[in-house]
Design a protein that fits this description.
Strand content: under 5%
Distance between the termini: 13 Å
CATH topology of the largest domain: Proton glutamate symport protein
Shape: globular
Number of strands: 0
CATH class of the largest domain: Mainly Alpha
CATH architecture of the largest domain: Orthogonal Bundle
Radius of gyration: 23 Å
Largest sheet: none
Number of helices: 21
CATH superfamily of the largest domain: Sodium:dicarboxylate symporter
Mean pLDDT: 76
Low-confidence stretches: 1-8, 161-192
Length: about 475
Amino acid sequence: MKARGEKPSVTLLAAAGIALYAAGAIAPYLWPIMRPAATVIRIATLALLALAAVRRRSLTGWIFLGMLAGIELGVDAPHAALAGRVFSDIFLRLIKVIVAPLILGTLITGIAGHAEARTVGRLGLKSLIYFEVLTTVALVIGLAAIDISRAGAGLHLTASPSAQTNTGQPRLQSSVVTESPQPGQTTPAPALSWQQFLLHVFPENIASAVAENQILQVAVFAILFGLALGRLSEAKRAPLVRLAESLTETMFVFTNFVMLYAPIGVGAALAYTVAHSGLGVMVNLGKLLLTLYVALVLFALVAMLPAALLARLPLREFLRAIAEPATIAFATSTSEAALPRAMEAMEAFGVPRRIVAFVIPTGYSFNLAGSALYLALASIFTAQAAGIHMSLGRQAAMLATLMLTSKGVAGVPRAVLVVLLATSSVFGLPTEPILVILGIDALMDMGRTTINVVGNCLAAAVVARWEGEFRTTAPAEEALAALES
Protein backbone atom coordinates (compact mmCIF):
# COMPACT_ATOMS: atom_id res chain seq x y z
CA MET A 1 0.00 0.00 0.00
CA LYS A 2 2.93 2.31 0.55
CA ALA A 3 3.86 2.21 -3.11
CA ARG A 4 0.41 3.32 -4.11
CA GLY A 5 0.53 6.45 -2.00
CA GLU A 6 4.15 7.36 -2.47
CA LYS A 7 4.28 8.08 -6.18
CA PRO A 8 1.45 10.60 -6.40
CA SER A 9 2.88 12.62 -3.51
CA VAL A 10 6.28 12.77 -5.20
CA THR A 11 4.76 13.83 -8.50
CA LEU A 12 2.48 16.43 -6.90
CA LEU A 13 5.39 17.82 -4.89
CA ALA A 14 7.47 18.03 -8.05
CA ALA A 15 4.59 19.73 -9.89
CA ALA A 16 4.28 22.26 -7.07
CA GLY A 17 8.01 22.85 -7.25
CA ILE A 18 7.83 23.40 -11.00
CA ALA A 19 4.97 25.88 -10.53
CA LEU A 20 6.95 27.80 -7.88
CA TYR A 21 10.06 27.75 -10.04
CA ALA A 22 8.06 28.97 -13.05
CA ALA A 23 6.71 31.84 -10.97
CA GLY A 24 10.27 32.78 -10.08
CA ALA A 25 11.28 32.60 -13.73
CA ILE A 26 8.36 34.67 -15.06
CA ALA A 27 8.33 37.36 -12.36
CA PRO A 28 11.41 39.29 -13.63
CA TYR A 29 9.81 39.71 -17.06
CA LEU A 30 6.64 41.15 -15.53
CA TRP A 31 8.29 43.20 -12.79
CA PRO A 32 12.03 43.79 -13.42
CA ILE A 33 12.44 45.05 -9.88
CA MET A 34 11.68 41.51 -8.70
CA ARG A 35 14.76 40.00 -10.42
CA PRO A 36 16.90 39.50 -7.26
CA ALA A 37 13.97 38.09 -5.29
CA ALA A 38 13.01 35.83 -8.19
CA THR A 39 16.53 34.40 -8.30
CA VAL A 40 16.35 33.62 -4.59
CA ILE A 41 12.95 31.94 -5.09
CA ARG A 42 14.29 29.72 -7.88
CA ILE A 43 17.36 28.65 -5.95
CA ALA A 44 15.32 28.03 -2.79
CA THR A 45 12.89 25.91 -4.82
CA LEU A 46 15.78 23.79 -6.14
CA ALA A 47 17.11 23.34 -2.60
CA LEU A 48 13.69 22.26 -1.29
CA LEU A 49 13.22 19.80 -4.16
CA ALA A 50 16.70 18.37 -3.50
CA LEU A 51 15.81 17.88 0.15
CA ALA A 52 12.53 16.20 -0.77
CA ALA A 53 14.28 13.93 -3.28
CA VAL A 54 16.84 12.88 -0.67
CA ARG A 55 14.19 12.12 1.93
CA ARG A 56 11.87 10.22 -0.40
CA ARG A 57 14.60 8.47 -2.39
CA SER A 58 12.53 8.89 -5.54
CA LEU A 59 14.11 8.78 -8.99
CA THR A 60 11.17 10.78 -10.31
CA GLY A 61 11.94 13.54 -7.82
CA TRP A 62 15.59 13.56 -8.85
CA ILE A 63 14.68 13.77 -12.53
CA PHE A 64 12.42 16.76 -11.89
CA LEU A 65 15.22 18.34 -9.88
CA GLY A 66 17.72 17.68 -12.67
CA MET A 67 15.33 19.25 -15.17
CA LEU A 68 14.92 22.46 -13.17
CA ALA A 69 18.62 22.63 -12.29
CA GLY A 70 19.46 22.27 -15.97
CA ILE A 71 17.11 25.10 -16.86
CA GLU A 72 18.69 27.30 -14.21
CA LEU A 73 22.19 26.50 -15.45
CA GLY A 74 21.19 27.23 -19.03
CA VAL A 75 19.82 30.63 -18.02
CA ASP A 76 22.54 31.72 -15.59
CA ALA A 77 25.64 30.09 -17.11
CA PRO A 78 25.02 29.38 -20.80
CA HIS A 79 28.70 28.80 -21.63
CA ALA A 80 29.01 26.13 -18.94
CA ALA A 81 25.71 24.62 -20.13
CA LEU A 82 26.98 24.37 -23.70
CA ALA A 83 30.23 22.77 -22.55
CA GLY A 84 28.38 20.27 -20.36
CA ARG A 85 26.57 18.62 -23.26
CA VAL A 86 28.95 15.67 -23.01
CA PHE A 87 27.14 14.51 -19.87
CA SER A 88 23.90 14.11 -21.80
CA ASP A 89 25.79 12.30 -24.58
CA ILE A 90 27.09 9.81 -22.01
CA PHE A 91 23.54 9.03 -20.95
CA LEU A 92 22.44 8.56 -24.56
CA ARG A 93 25.28 6.12 -25.20
CA LEU A 94 24.35 4.10 -22.13
CA ILE A 95 20.73 3.92 -23.29
CA LYS A 96 21.64 3.01 -26.86
CA VAL A 97 23.65 -0.01 -25.72
CA ILE A 98 20.46 -1.42 -24.18
CA VAL A 99 18.25 -1.20 -27.25
CA ALA A 100 19.22 -4.18 -29.43
CA PRO A 101 19.53 -6.80 -26.65
CA LEU A 102 16.27 -5.66 -25.09
CA ILE A 103 14.31 -5.73 -28.35
CA LEU A 104 15.77 -9.16 -29.08
CA GLY A 105 14.84 -10.58 -25.68
CA THR A 106 11.35 -9.07 -25.44
CA LEU A 107 10.22 -10.13 -28.92
CA ILE A 108 11.52 -13.68 -28.54
CA THR A 109 9.87 -13.97 -25.13
CA GLY A 110 6.61 -12.41 -26.35
CA ILE A 111 6.30 -14.76 -29.34
CA ALA A 112 7.76 -18.03 -28.06
CA GLY A 113 6.39 -17.48 -24.56
CA HIS A 114 2.88 -17.11 -25.98
CA ALA A 115 3.10 -20.05 -28.35
CA GLU A 116 -0.16 -21.27 -26.88
CA ALA A 117 -1.89 -18.55 -28.92
CA ARG A 118 -1.74 -20.96 -31.86
CA THR A 119 -3.25 -23.80 -29.90
CA VAL A 120 -6.24 -22.08 -28.33
CA GLY A 121 -7.96 -21.58 -31.71
CA ARG A 122 -10.40 -18.74 -31.97
CA LEU A 123 -9.45 -17.16 -28.65
CA GLY A 124 -5.87 -16.45 -29.71
CA LEU A 125 -6.85 -15.21 -33.17
CA LYS A 126 -9.61 -12.93 -31.91
CA SER A 127 -7.36 -11.50 -29.21
CA LEU A 128 -4.59 -10.68 -31.68
CA ILE A 129 -7.03 -9.11 -34.15
CA TYR A 130 -8.47 -6.91 -31.40
CA PHE A 131 -4.97 -5.95 -30.19
CA GLU A 132 -3.77 -4.94 -33.65
CA VAL A 133 -6.88 -2.92 -34.51
CA LEU A 134 -6.78 -0.92 -31.26
CA THR A 135 -3.01 -0.43 -31.42
CA THR A 136 -3.26 0.83 -35.00
CA VAL A 137 -5.98 3.32 -34.01
CA ALA A 138 -3.79 4.51 -31.11
CA LEU A 139 -0.82 5.04 -33.42
CA VAL A 140 -2.92 6.99 -35.92
CA ILE A 141 -4.42 9.21 -33.21
CA GLY A 142 -1.00 9.93 -31.74
CA LEU A 143 0.32 10.81 -35.16
CA ALA A 144 -2.61 13.09 -35.98
CA ALA A 145 -2.47 14.82 -32.59
CA ILE A 146 1.20 15.80 -32.85
CA ASP A 147 0.79 16.83 -36.51
CA ILE A 148 -1.99 19.19 -35.45
CA SER A 149 -0.35 20.63 -32.32
CA ARG A 150 3.21 20.69 -33.76
CA ALA A 151 4.51 20.79 -30.21
CA GLY A 152 8.14 20.25 -31.26
CA ALA A 153 8.28 22.93 -33.96
CA GLY A 154 10.82 25.67 -33.34
CA LEU A 155 13.21 23.81 -31.01
CA HIS A 156 15.87 23.07 -33.66
CA LEU A 157 17.62 20.40 -31.62
CA THR A 158 20.25 18.39 -33.53
CA ALA A 159 22.74 15.69 -32.63
CA SER A 160 26.11 16.73 -31.23
CA PRO A 161 29.26 15.54 -33.03
CA SER A 162 30.23 13.37 -30.08
CA ALA A 163 26.88 11.58 -30.25
CA GLN A 164 27.03 10.82 -33.95
CA THR A 165 28.40 7.55 -35.23
CA ASN A 166 29.22 6.21 -38.66
CA THR A 167 29.61 2.52 -39.13
CA GLY A 168 30.23 2.74 -42.87
CA GLN A 169 27.24 0.46 -43.50
CA PRO A 170 24.05 1.52 -45.28
CA ARG A 171 21.44 2.26 -42.64
CA LEU A 172 17.67 2.34 -43.02
CA GLN A 173 17.47 6.07 -42.46
CA SER A 174 19.12 6.59 -45.84
CA SER A 175 15.99 5.11 -47.34
CA VAL A 176 13.62 7.52 -45.67
CA VAL A 177 15.45 10.85 -45.32
CA THR A 178 14.86 12.29 -48.76
CA GLU A 179 13.95 15.92 -48.20
CA SER A 180 16.41 18.74 -48.65
CA PRO A 181 18.26 19.48 -45.41
CA GLN A 182 17.48 22.58 -43.45
CA PRO A 183 20.30 24.94 -42.47
CA GLY A 184 22.48 23.32 -39.86
CA GLN A 185 21.22 19.81 -40.59
CA THR A 186 23.29 16.88 -41.72
CA THR A 187 22.95 16.17 -45.43
CA PRO A 188 20.93 12.95 -45.82
CA ALA A 189 22.26 10.00 -47.73
CA PRO A 190 20.78 9.22 -51.17
CA ALA A 191 17.51 7.32 -51.02
CA LEU A 192 17.61 3.57 -51.43
CA SER A 193 15.37 1.85 -53.93
CA TRP A 194 12.47 -0.17 -52.58
CA GLN A 195 14.38 -3.35 -53.41
CA GLN A 196 17.37 -2.19 -51.36
CA PHE A 197 15.05 -1.08 -48.58
CA LEU A 198 13.34 -4.46 -48.45
CA LEU A 199 16.63 -6.34 -48.59
CA HIS A 200 18.10 -4.21 -45.82
CA VAL A 201 15.31 -5.18 -43.42
CA PHE A 202 16.45 -8.81 -43.37
CA PRO A 203 19.67 -9.61 -41.50
CA GLU A 204 22.53 -11.64 -42.91
CA ASN A 205 24.45 -11.60 -39.64
CA ILE A 206 22.66 -11.12 -36.34
CA ALA A 207 25.89 -10.20 -34.55
CA SER A 208 26.56 -7.30 -36.92
CA ALA A 209 22.90 -6.25 -36.76
CA VAL A 210 23.15 -5.98 -32.96
CA ALA A 211 26.54 -4.27 -33.12
CA GLU A 212 25.30 -1.66 -35.59
CA ASN A 213 21.95 -1.18 -33.80
CA GLN A 214 20.02 -2.22 -36.90
CA ILE A 215 16.78 -2.51 -34.96
CA LEU A 216 14.51 -3.73 -37.76
CA GLN A 217 16.98 -6.50 -38.59
CA VAL A 218 17.12 -7.47 -34.92
CA ALA A 219 13.32 -7.45 -34.73
CA VAL A 220 12.92 -9.61 -37.85
CA PHE A 221 15.43 -12.12 -36.50
CA ALA A 222 13.69 -12.18 -33.11
CA ILE A 223 10.28 -12.79 -34.69
CA LEU A 224 11.54 -15.65 -36.86
CA PHE A 225 13.50 -17.09 -33.95
CA GLY A 226 10.46 -16.87 -31.67
CA LEU A 227 8.25 -18.55 -34.27
CA ALA A 228 10.82 -21.31 -34.70
CA LEU A 229 10.97 -21.82 -30.93
CA GLY A 230 7.21 -22.08 -30.86
CA ARG A 231 7.36 -25.08 -33.20
CA LEU A 232 9.55 -27.06 -30.79
CA SER A 233 8.34 -29.29 -28.02
CA GLU A 234 8.05 -27.80 -24.56
CA ALA A 235 11.15 -29.65 -23.34
CA LYS A 236 13.32 -28.28 -26.15
CA ARG A 237 11.77 -24.81 -26.18
CA ALA A 238 11.90 -24.11 -22.46
CA PRO A 239 15.70 -23.61 -22.03
CA LEU A 240 15.91 -20.98 -24.79
CA VAL A 241 12.73 -19.25 -23.65
CA ARG A 242 14.18 -19.06 -20.14
CA LEU A 243 17.40 -17.65 -21.64
CA ALA A 244 15.44 -14.98 -23.52
CA GLU A 245 13.45 -14.17 -20.38
CA SER A 246 16.66 -13.96 -18.37
CA LEU A 247 18.23 -11.67 -20.99
CA THR A 248 15.17 -9.43 -20.91
CA GLU A 249 15.07 -9.22 -17.13
CA THR A 250 18.82 -8.56 -17.00
CA MET A 251 18.54 -5.74 -19.52
CA PHE A 252 15.75 -4.14 -17.49
CA VAL A 253 17.96 -4.27 -14.39
CA PHE A 254 20.71 -2.79 -16.56
CA THR A 255 18.26 -0.07 -17.58
CA ASN A 256 17.50 0.65 -13.93
CA PHE A 257 21.21 1.15 -13.28
CA VAL A 258 21.50 3.50 -16.24
CA MET A 259 18.42 5.43 -15.13
CA LEU A 260 20.19 6.34 -11.91
CA TYR A 261 22.27 8.65 -14.11
CA ALA A 262 19.13 10.09 -15.73
CA PRO A 263 18.89 13.24 -13.53
CA ILE A 264 22.38 14.30 -14.65
CA GLY A 265 21.71 13.41 -18.28
CA VAL A 266 18.36 15.22 -18.33
CA GLY A 267 19.81 18.24 -16.54
CA ALA A 268 22.72 18.51 -18.98
CA ALA A 269 20.42 18.13 -21.98
CA LEU A 270 17.99 20.81 -20.79
CA ALA A 271 20.85 23.12 -19.79
CA TYR A 272 22.24 22.89 -23.32
CA THR A 273 18.79 23.30 -24.87
CA VAL A 274 17.93 26.40 -22.83
CA ALA A 275 21.36 27.92 -23.47
CA HIS A 276 21.02 27.18 -27.18
CA SER A 277 17.30 27.80 -27.82
CA GLY A 278 16.05 29.80 -24.84
CA LEU A 279 13.28 29.13 -22.33
CA GLY A 280 10.81 28.51 -25.15
CA VAL A 281 11.62 24.81 -24.78
CA MET A 282 9.37 24.70 -21.72
CA VAL A 283 6.45 25.95 -23.82
CA ASN A 284 7.09 23.13 -26.28
CA LEU A 285 7.19 20.54 -23.49
CA GLY A 286 3.96 21.89 -22.04
CA LYS A 287 2.30 21.61 -25.46
CA LEU A 288 3.59 18.05 -25.78
CA LEU A 289 2.17 17.07 -22.40
CA LEU A 290 -1.21 18.63 -23.22
CA THR A 291 -1.20 16.98 -26.66
CA LEU A 292 -0.64 13.55 -25.11
CA TYR A 293 -3.50 13.79 -22.63
CA VAL A 294 -5.89 15.18 -25.25
CA ALA A 295 -4.92 12.30 -27.56
CA LEU A 296 -5.40 9.73 -24.78
CA VAL A 297 -8.87 11.07 -24.01
CA LEU A 298 -9.68 11.06 -27.72
CA PHE A 299 -8.51 7.45 -28.02
CA ALA A 300 -10.72 6.46 -25.10
CA LEU A 301 -13.72 8.13 -26.76
CA VAL A 302 -13.28 7.03 -30.38
CA ALA A 303 -11.74 3.57 -29.89
CA MET A 304 -12.29 2.11 -26.42
CA LEU A 305 -15.83 3.42 -25.88
CA PRO A 306 -17.13 2.13 -29.26
CA ALA A 307 -15.48 -1.25 -28.59
CA ALA A 308 -17.31 -1.48 -25.25
CA LEU A 309 -20.61 -0.40 -26.82
CA LEU A 310 -20.30 -2.85 -29.72
CA ALA A 311 -19.64 -5.62 -27.20
CA ARG A 312 -22.69 -4.47 -25.21
CA LEU A 313 -20.75 -4.21 -21.97
CA PRO A 314 -22.39 -2.55 -18.96
CA LEU A 315 -20.28 0.62 -18.86
CA ARG A 316 -21.06 1.68 -15.30
CA GLU A 317 -20.13 -1.70 -13.88
CA PHE A 318 -17.01 -1.86 -16.06
CA LEU A 319 -15.82 1.55 -14.86
CA ARG A 320 -16.47 0.49 -11.29
CA ALA A 321 -14.50 -2.72 -11.80
CA ILE A 322 -11.44 -1.05 -13.33
CA ALA A 323 -11.31 1.91 -10.94
CA GLU A 324 -8.70 0.41 -8.62
CA PRO A 325 -6.42 -1.13 -11.28
CA ALA A 326 -6.49 2.17 -13.18
CA THR A 327 -5.68 4.11 -10.01
CA ILE A 328 -2.73 1.82 -9.25
CA ALA A 329 -1.47 2.23 -12.82
CA PHE A 330 -1.77 6.02 -12.68
CA ALA A 331 -0.13 6.25 -9.26
CA THR A 332 2.81 3.93 -9.95
CA SER A 333 3.24 4.41 -13.73
CA THR A 334 3.70 0.64 -13.81
CA SER A 335 1.34 -1.69 -15.65
CA GLU A 336 2.83 -4.70 -13.90
CA ALA A 337 1.82 -3.34 -10.49
CA ALA A 338 -1.84 -3.34 -11.56
CA LEU A 339 -1.80 -6.78 -13.23
CA PRO A 340 -2.97 -8.95 -10.28
CA ARG A 341 -5.78 -6.58 -9.35
CA ALA A 342 -6.83 -6.16 -12.98
CA MET A 343 -7.17 -9.91 -13.45
CA GLU A 344 -9.14 -10.23 -10.22
CA ALA A 345 -11.39 -7.31 -11.19
CA MET A 346 -12.20 -8.73 -14.63
CA GLU A 347 -13.02 -12.13 -13.20
CA ALA A 348 -15.38 -10.53 -10.69
CA PHE A 349 -16.85 -8.45 -13.54
CA GLY A 350 -17.89 -11.65 -15.31
CA VAL A 351 -15.03 -12.67 -17.62
CA PRO A 352 -14.19 -16.39 -17.35
CA ARG A 353 -10.88 -17.16 -15.69
CA ARG A 354 -9.41 -18.93 -18.72
CA ILE A 355 -10.00 -15.84 -20.88
CA VAL A 356 -8.66 -13.46 -18.24
CA ALA A 357 -5.56 -15.63 -17.78
CA PHE A 358 -4.84 -15.58 -21.51
CA VAL A 359 -5.92 -12.16 -22.78
CA ILE A 360 -4.55 -9.82 -20.11
CA PRO A 361 -1.00 -11.26 -19.84
CA THR A 362 -0.81 -11.54 -23.65
CA GLY A 363 -2.04 -7.96 -23.92
CA TYR A 364 0.87 -6.81 -21.79
CA SER A 365 3.08 -7.76 -24.74
CA PHE A 366 0.79 -7.01 -27.69
CA ASN A 367 -1.83 -4.47 -26.55
CA LEU A 368 -0.09 -1.47 -24.97
CA ALA A 369 -2.20 1.11 -26.79
CA GLY A 370 -1.24 3.97 -24.47
CA SER A 371 2.46 3.33 -25.05
CA ALA A 372 1.91 2.98 -28.81
CA LEU A 373 0.09 6.33 -28.94
CA TYR A 374 2.88 7.97 -26.95
CA LEU A 375 5.55 6.48 -29.22
CA ALA A 376 3.89 7.84 -32.36
CA LEU A 377 3.48 11.25 -30.77
CA ALA A 378 7.03 11.40 -29.33
CA SER A 379 8.67 10.18 -32.54
CA ILE A 380 7.13 12.96 -34.63
CA PHE A 381 7.89 15.46 -31.84
CA THR A 382 11.54 14.41 -32.15
CA ALA A 383 11.48 15.05 -35.90
CA GLN A 384 9.78 18.42 -35.42
CA ALA A 385 12.31 19.43 -32.76
CA ALA A 386 15.14 18.58 -35.16
CA GLY A 387 13.56 20.57 -37.99
CA ILE A 388 13.07 17.42 -40.11
CA HIS A 389 10.01 17.35 -42.33
CA MET A 390 8.21 14.00 -42.22
CA SER A 391 6.14 13.27 -45.33
CA LEU A 392 2.98 11.20 -45.00
CA GLY A 393 4.82 8.26 -46.56
CA ARG A 394 7.60 8.42 -43.99
CA GLN A 395 5.07 8.79 -41.18
CA ALA A 396 3.26 5.70 -42.43
CA ALA A 397 6.57 3.83 -42.50
CA MET A 398 7.22 4.98 -38.94
CA LEU A 399 3.79 3.68 -37.86
CA ALA A 400 4.60 0.29 -39.37
CA THR A 401 7.94 0.25 -37.56
CA LEU A 402 6.32 1.19 -34.26
CA MET A 403 3.80 -1.63 -34.70
CA LEU A 404 6.81 -3.94 -34.67
CA THR A 405 9.19 -2.37 -32.15
CA SER A 406 6.49 -1.65 -29.56
CA LYS A 407 5.62 -5.33 -29.14
CA GLY A 408 6.91 -6.77 -25.92
CA VAL A 409 7.76 -3.44 -24.29
CA ALA A 410 7.54 -4.08 -20.56
CA GLY A 411 4.97 -2.33 -18.40
CA VAL A 412 7.58 -0.62 -16.22
CA PRO A 413 8.39 3.09 -15.90
CA ARG A 414 10.45 4.56 -18.76
CA ALA A 415 10.63 1.26 -20.66
CA VAL A 416 9.22 2.94 -23.78
CA LEU A 417 12.27 5.22 -23.80
CA VAL A 418 14.22 2.28 -25.21
CA VAL A 419 11.65 1.69 -27.98
CA LEU A 420 11.56 5.41 -28.78
CA LEU A 421 15.33 5.48 -29.17
CA ALA A 422 15.19 2.37 -31.33
CA THR A 423 12.63 3.93 -33.67
CA SER A 424 14.58 7.19 -33.84
CA SER A 425 17.73 5.35 -34.81
CA VAL A 426 15.88 3.55 -37.62
CA PHE A 427 14.71 6.86 -39.12
CA GLY A 428 17.88 8.84 -38.56
CA LEU A 429 16.37 11.20 -35.98
CA PRO A 430 18.59 12.84 -33.36
CA THR A 431 18.28 11.55 -29.83
CA GLU A 432 18.68 14.90 -28.03
CA PRO A 433 14.95 15.78 -28.18
CA ILE A 434 14.16 12.42 -26.56
CA LEU A 435 16.38 13.33 -23.63
CA VAL A 436 14.50 16.62 -23.28
CA ILE A 437 11.20 14.72 -23.28
CA LEU A 438 12.48 12.58 -20.41
CA GLY A 439 12.19 15.66 -18.17
CA ILE A 440 8.38 15.36 -18.27
CA ASP A 441 8.21 11.63 -18.95
CA ALA A 442 6.97 10.83 -15.44
CA LEU A 443 3.88 12.98 -15.99
CA MET A 444 3.29 11.45 -19.42
CA ASP A 445 3.89 7.91 -18.16
CA MET A 446 1.01 8.12 -15.71
CA GLY A 447 -1.56 8.71 -18.45
CA ARG A 448 -0.28 6.21 -21.00
CA THR A 449 0.08 3.46 -18.37
CA THR A 450 -3.52 3.97 -17.26
CA ILE A 451 -4.70 3.52 -20.85
CA ASN A 452 -2.56 0.37 -21.14
CA VAL A 453 -4.21 -1.24 -18.11
CA VAL A 454 -7.77 -0.16 -18.91
CA GLY A 455 -7.27 -1.27 -22.51
CA ASN A 456 -6.23 -4.76 -21.49
CA CYS A 457 -9.15 -5.08 -19.09
CA LEU A 458 -11.50 -3.99 -21.88
CA ALA A 459 -9.87 -6.49 -24.26
CA ALA A 460 -10.61 -9.35 -21.88
CA ALA A 461 -14.27 -8.37 -21.61
CA VAL A 462 -14.68 -7.80 -25.37
CA VAL A 463 -13.07 -11.13 -26.27
CA ALA A 464 -15.24 -12.90 -23.68
CA ARG A 465 -18.36 -11.36 -25.25
CA TRP A 466 -17.02 -12.26 -28.73
CA GLU A 467 -16.59 -15.84 -27.59
CA GLY A 468 -20.08 -15.88 -26.11
CA GLU A 469 -18.70 -16.57 -22.64
CA PHE A 470 -19.30 -13.26 -20.93
CA ARG A 471 -21.46 -13.54 -17.83
CA THR A 472 -25.15 -14.06 -18.33
CA THR A 473 -26.17 -12.52 -15.00
CA ALA A 474 -24.95 -9.45 -13.19
CA PRO A 475 -22.16 -10.02 -10.65
CA ALA A 476 -23.14 -10.12 -7.04
CA GLU A 477 -23.05 -6.74 -5.34
CA GLU A 478 -20.63 -8.07 -2.75
CA ALA A 479 -18.22 -9.07 -5.51
CA LEU A 480 -18.11 -5.52 -6.85
CA ALA A 481 -17.93 -4.09 -3.37
CA ALA A 482 -14.95 -6.31 -2.63
CA LEU A 483 -13.09 -4.66 -5.50
CA GLU A 484 -13.40 -1.29 -3.80
CA SER A 485 -12.44 -2.44 -0.32
